[in-house]
Specification:
It is a single chain. The protein is α+β, with helices and mostly antiparallel strands. Helix content is about 35%, strand content about 20%. It has helices at about 20-25, 40, 155, 170-190, 220-230, 235-260, 265-290, 320-330, 365-385, 390-395, 400-410, 420-430, 450-460, 510-520, 525-535, 545-555; strands at about 55-70, 75-80, 85-90, 105-115, 130-140, 195, 200, 215, 295, 300, 310-315, 330-340, 350-360, 415-420, 465-470, 485-495, 495-505, 540-545. The strands form four sheets. The chain has an eight-stranded mixed sheet with strand order 6-12-13-18-17-16-15-14. The chain has a five-stranded mixed β-barrel with strand order 1-2-3-5-4.
Length: about 575
């Protein structure tokens, strides 16, 4: 469900506060706004009890509100997004009109005094705020507000992308996603990698799959031209011929003036008229050639007239581009959006998703696997240290095993086996009666069910499978000595299967050109990539982590559309 009750405040770890903030008896005010974040109060080891007696200003949105004492006062549960827990706020009727405050979704800014709530009646709060002044109220019409305090399914919440961040589940996922992004940048920075921003618009197909979104202005330019031709029809052949006659007449007039030895002024004026006539003719001929529809040459669209002078696409990966910096700066990484025009409606596919793609110069496949394992472990430890409160919420509401799964990955050495060994294990399982929807044989691309069986049933821990058949991998992966496999690896984890895909890159120019020819990719768009092999080629490796898959793995969510703020998939691109 979309908006379950968060865990009690006394279970929250003060993981997002500094040691000084957690132990101080003075509440920390936000630096760039006139308020105190609720996390600064409730995220302390004492749940905020040590702040009793302090006057603070808080702002946030009302999760629930109720009048009590026959309208004498009201209790509000207020959340500002800084943590999963709500701060209980008590407002007396003498301070403000309670009817404007209690509706779910109302935004409030209030001044008050923190105090220990009365004992008894199942009180879970260690601290509450007694309001002395209501500073600001953003009211809500309860009859129209689409996110009520009653539970909504995650699927229903996707209809309100602009409001769903106010729910417990989506706000927790947002904080977890942020933490994973921070862990990513911190890990690579600590390891000496440079962050490189690769282009979103590209002319290269990294995967060779062809499922790319095209970037073009030809359609809009063509539509504009067609509207213009309707409003101002192009010149006819008769119009062009008339313009030619004028040029001829103007030319003859100049010749006559010169023959008659007319004045210089008269000749220059006649020449100016001739030039004007020639310019008019050129423009008339040019407009007469305008035709509706996309520009074509030999029956094919003429992309030389497009914005970039050639076909361009939204990138499916920044890997090829970031390799150029790895081959000059050694260790680099990119972290950005990628796009795939795959008409898939599964719970594991998005049209727009984020990838983390490091490249390691002078590194082989073993180094690549070591880096991938260390990175995944680092992210798991980071979440457990920084966002344990949000992970508790996910464990309570969605996946009871998500915290244990993070601990397992953070502390367990990853298993490693070759693709051939993995296929053998799967074939043995089939022989013993295990049924898979997808057939098992050497040469297949492992399906998610195969990957999860290996990680969850056979080994019960993360795995790295390496040395895949060359026929199912990209052209840039280094060909092994057996001629059948490439130095590729996938990191497989419980819950989601493949989390990372990587390889040692092919640094031998003759081999990579043969691979391009085998796959049927044109050489011309990759000449710049081949230059990296022509001029000072170096052994290097890299991998890509699907960021949303990491969030799925961490949170235990079932649908990838719920772990990205603004999901794009076939038929939907809201906001």
């Amino acid at each position: 469900m979309g908006d379950e009750i968060p865990p009690p405040v006394d279970q929250l770890a003060a993981v997002s506060l500094t040691n000084d903030e957690a132990s101080s008896s003075t509440v920390q005010k936000a630096r760039f706004s006139d308020r105190v974040r609720i996390n600064s109060i409730l995220g302390r080891p004492d749940g905020g009890a040590g702040l009793a007696g302090q006057k603070v200003r808080i702002s946030g949105w009302v999760k629930t509100g109720r009048e009590q004492g026959k309208g004498a006062f009201a209790f509000l549960e207020v959340n500002d997004g800084s943590c999963p827990a709500n701060l209980q706020v008590m407002v007396d009727a003498s301070v403000s009109d309670l009817s404007k405050l209690i509706a779910t979704g109302t935004c409030v800014t209030v001044d008050g005094c923190l105090k220990i709530p009365p004992e008894g009646k199942g009180t879970k709060q260690k601290i509450e705020l007694s309001v002395v002044e209501v500073i600001d109220v953003g009211t809500v019409d309860p009859g129209k507000y689409p996110i009520p305090k009653t539970k909504l399914t995650l699927e229903r919440l996707r209809e309100f992308l602009h409001l769903r961040a106010r729910t417990n589940s989506i706000s927790a996922i947002a904080r977890i996603r942020h933490a994973l992004a921070m862990a990513t940048h911190t890990f690579f920075d600590e390891e000496g990698f440079l962050y490189v921003q690769t282009p979103i618009i590209t002319t290269s197909d990294c995967e060779g799959a062809g499922e790319m979104f095209q970037v073009t202005t030809l359609i809009s330019t063509t539509e504009k031209l067609e509207r213009e031709l309707i409003e101002h029809p192009p010149p006819t052949e008769a119009d062009v011929e008339a313009a030619r006659v004028v040029v001829k007449e103007r030319g003859e007039a100049v010749a006559q003036l010169k023959a008659a030895k007319a004045s210089k002024e008269a000749i220059m004026a006649s020449v100016a008229e001739l030039n004007d006539a020639k310019l008019h003719l050129a423009r008339t001929e040019e407009r007469s050639r305008l035709k509706p529809g996309l520009p074509k040459v030999d029956g094919k669209i003429d992309y030389s007239q497009d914005f970039f002078g050639r076909q361009a696409f939204l990138t499916v990966s920044g890997q090829l581009q970031v390799e150029t910096y790895a081959c000059g700066l050694s260790d680099v990484y990119t972290f950005g959006p990628t796009f795939r025009a795959e008409n898939s409606h599964t719970s594991r596919h998005l049209a727009e998703f984020w990838m983390v793609e490091p490249e390691l110069a002078f590194a082989d496949l073993e180094d690549d696997m070591n880096c991938a394992e260390a990175y995944v472990k680092y992210m798991c430890k980071w979440l457990l240290e920084k966002r344990y409160d949000d992970m508790e919420l996910m464990a309570k509401n969605f996946d009871k095993g998500c915290i244990d799964r993070l601990k397992l990955v953070a502390s367990t050495p990853f298993g490693r086996l070759t693709y051939t060994e993995a296929i053998k294990i799967l074939e043995e399982a089939v022989a013993k009666g295990k049924k898979f929807e997808n057939d098992v044989e050497w040469g297949i691309d492992l399906a998610s069910e195969h990957e999860r069986y290996l990680t969850e049933v056979v080994f019960q821990k993360p795995l790295i499978v390496y040395n895949y058949p060359k026929g199912i991998k990209a052209f840039y992966m280094r060909l092994n000595d057996d001629g059948k496999t490439v130095a590729a690896m996938d990191v497989l984890v419980p819950k989601v299967g493949e989390l990372i895909g990587g390889s040692q890159r092919e640094e031998r120019i003759d081999v990579i050109m043969e691979r391009l020819e085998e796959i049927g990719l044109p050489v011309e768009p990759y000449e710049w990539y081949l230059d990296l092999r022509r001029y000072g080629t170096a052994k290097h490796s890299g991998f890509g982590l699907g960021f949303e898959r990491m969030v799925l793995f961490a949170t235990g969510m079932d649908n990838i559309r719920d772990v990205i703020p603004f999901p794009r998939y076939p038929g939907r691109a809201d906001l």
